[in-house]
Amino acid sequence: MVPVKILLSKVGLDGHDRGIKVIARALMEAGFEVVYLGLHRTPEEIVKAAIEEDVDGIGVSILSGAHMTHFPRIIELLKKEGEHIPVFGGGIIPDEDIKQLKKIGVKELFPPGTSLSAIVDWVRNNIPKKSVSIQS
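RESULT FIELD:
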């Protein structure tokens, strides 16, 4: 069975990547395939890579405070491409912003201190493997 494939990335000028690397490792140890794009990615790079890698979900970490710019842009680009890849993320995001981001389509946002098991369980229960259709 092919594992669920998750793309993880840091967006914008945020250079703090220890947390997302720990999450990547936890997801890999839980049996997920993980593509980590690294630091300083743009929403355009994230969406392009997600489509090229045919991922099942996109996880974005942002601690810079630019979440109300980057998450909406990722959602907008996915819609423009006709993609329905679930987006989740984490970082220092105020509760009122979390509500707004969920309204536009971000599936879940994890604040600092969220346990690895909670993140892994959420991904396991909310990011389905894309169905594979075989054309003849």
